[in-house]
Specification:
Strand content: 15-25%
Strand order of the largest sheet: 2-3-1-4
Oligomer: single chain
Bound molecules: adenosine-3',5'-cyclic-monophosphate
Number of helices: 7
Radius of gyration: 14 Å
CATH class: Alpha Beta
Order of helices and strands: EHHEHHEHHEH
Shape: globular
Helix content: 25-40%
CATH topology: Alpha-Beta Plaits
């Protein structure tokens, strides 16, 4: 059953290039309420833990290096049908396939540097939110 929360990260190059404000504005304008938010820099090891589900994939090492290359912004977002609606807002993983008006179409540079992460299921939204905000139930 769909829940009303999802989890996102604004990725290192989008933060470093000053797109955080514009991306957060798009997120709020689309009707998401920011429930929790923090800026952090991951170690490569911690990035590897977050993306452990991809550890057998050929892009895993590069992804972990990239995700620990600078500060990221992690946030829990709330909206009815949050997971699906947020994936629509961000667009396809590969920006070459992202629809006009999506966050990735506007700010992503490549499959790896794709500006934002969005949870792919309610279960993963809960797991990923807890990775950064241990006490999510308090928000
Ligand atoms: P994200 O939504 O954060 O989830 C996993 C990330 O791996 C994905 O966005 C991309 O940044 C990155 N990635 C790199 N190469 C690939 C690939 N071939 N397929 C899927 N994800 C990839």
């Amino acid at each position: 059953m769909a829940t009303n929360r999802t989890f996102t990260m604004i990725k290192p190059d989008a933060v470093a290039e000053g797109h955080s404000g514009a991306i957060l504005k798009m997120i709020e304008a689309a009707g998401f309420r920011i429930v929790a938010l923090k800026m952090v820099r991951l170690t490569k090891e911690r990035a590897g833990q977050f993306y452990a589900v991809h550890q057998e994939r050929p892009f895993y090492d590069s992804l972990c290096t990239y995700m620990s290359s600078g500060q990221i912004i992690a946030a829990i977002l709330e909206k009815k049908n949050a997971v699906a609606d947020f994936r629509t807002l961000i667009g396809a993983t590969n920006p070459a396939d992202a629809a006009e008006g999506t966050i990735r179409k506007m700010y992503a540079k490549s499959m790896e540097s794709n500006a934002v992460h969005g949870s792919d299921s309610d279960e993963n939204a809960q797991i990923e939110g807890s990775f950064y905000f241990a006490d999510t139930e308090k928000f």
